[in-house]
Amino acid sequence: MLTGRVCPAKRADTRARRAGAVAPRGGRTVSGREAELSALDEAYGRPLLFIVRGQAGMGKTTLLREVHRTWRRRGPGIVRIKCSAAIPRWDLFGTRAVVKAFSDSFPDSGNSALPDAMAAVNRLCLPESYGSARARSALFSELVGLFAHLTEDAPGAVLIDDLHTAPDPALVVAAAHRVGCTVVATYREDGWAIRPTGSASPHTFADRVIDLGPLPDDQIDALVTVAAREPLDQAVAPALRAALGPLAGNPGTVLDTFEALRREGHLVRFQGHLCLREPATGPGLPADHALIRQVAECGTTGRQLLAITALSGRFAMDGLPDFAAATGRAIEACGRTVDRLVAVGALVCDDHGVLRVPCPALVPAVLPGPARDEAAEVHRALAEHHLRADGTAATDPAVTSDHIVLAGRALPPIPSVVPLLEGQASLALGTFPERAARRYRAALRHCEPGGTPYSRILAALLPLLVRTGDYEGLAEAVAEGARAGGGPRHAKLAAYAALAAVHTGRPVPVPVREALANGPETRSALEFADGWFTGRVPLRTSQVHLAFACLHPDGVDTVPTDLPDCDRFDPVALFGQVLGTATYGEPVTGPLAAYTRIMRDYRDGNWGGIPSGARTLELAGPPCTPVHHAVRLIAAEVHSTMGDYEGSAAWLELESAGHDCPFPALRAWASMGLAYRTGEWERARKLGWSFCDRSAERSAEGSVVGVGRLLIRLAFTEWGEGGRRELLPRLRNEAEQWYSHLGGTELKAATLITRAFAERDTDSAIEAVNVLREHGGRSELLRACMTVAFLADDPRPWHHEAHDIARGLGDSLHRTPMTESMGASGLAQTTCDDSARSGPAALSGLEGPIAALVGRGLTNRQIAREIQVSEKTVENNLTQVFAKTGCRSRLDLALAVMEGRLTAFLPRS
After folding, report:
1. Which whole-number Å values give the CA distances from 284 to 53, 253, 264, 739, in the listed order?
2. Minimal CA–CA distance to 167: which of 240, 105, 94?
């Protein structure tokens, strides 16, 4: 049976509970407030008034609930008063809330004096009691007597929630403070805008004020993980924080937003994790958030200002007079609305008078439709205002152009603005190509379709969109060009359509295909796009050249047909080679951008985010392109390396469901990794040799991605005990043939490592290390260092480098390598009782230290000398290590130590 590590959600929950961060069942977590709880705890039993101050949602009520829970264990003399706006404004002492709190706290009191005291207070709780000083004094005396009951047998404590809602906060706390109770009251930081004349804010007379500030990111992430109650995808918490901006440290807002995502169906379970259903769409604030209400109070003006600021990312205050004139409002009223939006935090204004939206999650919550639609109407009014040139409009043509751009289709076609837009695009082309592209696109919308200006602008726009990496814009421009029938000849337009489809992850739309599929010159590009979305054929240089060489600025003949590292799948590099690096802009969004990030992280050893990135890619679009196949296999390898064998098997199963894999070598490599890590050595060998036995056929198919990795893994498998070392020369020949045919870094390293094993050639292994240090990935470099370590006379420096690499990989996966858990020397002996342990048998006695020293490359004699035992003792313990861990050789044991795979066998000490 496959065994894996504890899931991240359980680990986070355990960490939170150990830190005292989890409230009782049904309550919210108190995370990151240990210092505040400690300060309040020290005050228990002392006649002090504490004010806990913070913004709405900062966790004041949760903190008070936790104080109430812990202090109740110390004695019965505690009462919790909940203030609210329902308290009559005449009830200055908050008497009704006090009586209700005592009734709730002592429903079955055996002390008859307490009900009598509550009844006395209740009789005097009338508007008339506040009409005279004498009656008010009598009511206050009865309140003092009521609170005195709390201090009869033990120190008394009074907890007051939402003190800012009380008619007169100072009077509410006075009676409890008079009798010497410990008083802890919470109030909202912005809750004192309106209070009775002459009433002082409690912080002016409190003994101590505790300010609840924002929680740090790690505490917020832990809160969200616990609230999920199941494994949570790693991208969810950062997405929440990014959307909430300055509210991201507010635990109440974060948890409310997360629960709103769950309630509204924006979270979906995939591969055992709770993920964002649409990762590209940011979360919105919950509908009942105070900031939404505050923006709504600013009316249509506030909503429109928020919309235009969000759409363009900024709004300069210099443009406010134009906004007022275009929308028919007074400039003074618009200024007051801006001030209000800034005051509540909906907008921020920098020193240059530029407004921005600090909380992106506010925008989808406030605007009934897409922000772009609301903002476009405002920009339409601004563009028309500028074009009227009535003397009040700005004369800067760039400003007018930008309003036309942002108005989009909300502004009806005006052919007379085409020269303006085209001229402004030309001016921006050298310094701001993205801005130039937007202006060309706007000019295209206002052109007469099919005319000469239309064709000229489209011909300038399409390559500019590719150069700036705007493939969403390219898809839209191609659709417009195909519909209008102007612009570049159909061969180029078809190539642009295919390029947009591959980069956006969406097939060529049917209307575009029908408009372009009318000649043989468009066939190669459209067929390439079709083949890409079947996912069965790997990316070949010849296919890319045939489909897209017409887009190269210098012509077809100048495009290289060969790439270095042909055993790697790197579509972005291939497009750059074929189109020219000056012509091709690397994508920032879309499946190719996601794939490039994942592969870069794998190469650099930053593996922690790879599983989340793979899940995000699967949920983002049609999961049947070559990048999806490759990422699934990388995710399977990462999961098996970190010991999550069930997760690895799930990715491999997904890869085999319904589609032929275009990367058989890469799939065999990932499957071998899972097989030998779970003890299925024979199956691992069969998987590797099965590919090699069909190598000629695979070469003909071009399915060579990952061959170098597979050959290295197969060499390690055959080198170990139980392996067939007599097959290593054949494996060396296989690697040499592949390298002579394809070249590339990984195949060169594979040739050197297989030669090192077959010929016991240390120099070849050292050369492989040097090659991979320069161009290879961290995981492959680790194995090259291990090769040298097992062949060199002095293995220690090579083991040291391998350990450093393994430790780096381990940190990125939140694992603890075995040698770290045993101390720096690796000699800490285990003496705990493991009789109750479930799962794999734990390494006990000398077995753990001996395994760690094997990982450092020591021989049995060196180990015996190191821990001062006989060689026979080392051999006997090593036999037990092999039996318990399933490792078949010293090489595999050393790799298992470095990869952290033996932590499951460590005792629970």
Report:
1. 26, 11, 11, 52
2. 94
State the residue for tokens 């492959």. Answer: 780
pTM over the 0.85 mark: no
DSSP three-state, residue 850: helix
Q: Which one has a higher pLDDT value, 457 or 199?
A: 457
Q: Could you give the CA distance from residue 538 to residue 260 in angstroms, rounded to a whole number?
A: 41
* CB 633, CB 655: distance < 8 Å: yes
pLDDT 10s digits, 749-758: 999 999 999 9
**At 555, is the pLDDT very low, low, confident or very high (cuts 50, 70, 90)?**
low
pLDDT over 50 at 19, yes or no = no
Element spanning 440, H or E: helix 433-446
Q: How far are the Cα atoms of 340, 422, 426, 534 from residue 385, in angstroms, in the given order?
A: 26, 20, 24, 50
Instruction: Output the pLDDT for position 811.
Output: 45
Q: Is the per-residue pLDDT at 521 higher than 90?
A: no
Separation CA 706–CA 221 (nearest Å): 36
CA atoms within 13 A on the CB side of 588: 8
- State residue 262's pLDDT score: 92
Cα gap 78→147, rounded to integer Å: 10
* C-alpha–C-alpha distance, residues 672 and 651, integer Å: 14
pLDDT, one tens digit per residue, over 118-167 is 999 989 989 998 888 999 999 999 999 999 988 887 788 999 999 988 88
Query: Which of 803 and 131 is assigned the larger pLDDT?
Result: 131
Best mean pLDDT range from 629-638, 779-788, 856-865: 629-638
8 Å CB contact between 772 and 805: no
DSSP 726-759: GGHHHHHHHHHHHHHHH--HHHHHHHHHHHHHHH
Q: State which H helix or E strand residue 66 sits in.
A: helix 60-71
Residue in this structure with the two tokens 């240059």, named with its chain if needed = 352
Q: Where are the beta strands (DSSP E) in 846-904?
A: none
Q: What's the Cα-to-Cα distance from 133 to each of 74, 92, 128, 796, rounded to whole Å?
A: 38, 13, 11, 89
Strand-by-strand arrangement of the 354-356 sheet: 315-316, 354-356, 348-349
User: Could you tell me which of 199, 201, 206, 212 has the C-alpha nearest to residue 184?
Assistant: 206
Q: Which amino acid type is present at position 597?
A: R
Q: For residues 643 and 813, give the distance between their C-alpha atoms in angstroms, rounded to a whole number.
A: 10
Whole-angstrom distance, CA of residue 371 vs CA of residue 153: 62
So what's the pLDDT on residue 635?
A: 95
The DSSP result for 316-341, as a single string, is EGGGHHHHHHHHT--HHHHHHHHHHH
Task: Examine the pLDDT at 379 and tell me if it is beyond 90.
Answer: yes
Buried/exposed code over 31-45 (b: 16+ C-beta within 10 A; e: otherwise): bbbeebbeebeebbb
User: What pLDDT does residue 32 have?
Assistant: 78
3-state secondary structure of 275: strand
Mean pLDDT taken over the chain: 83
Q: How far is CA 785 from CA 571, 708, 788, 806, in A?
A: 30, 16, 5, 11
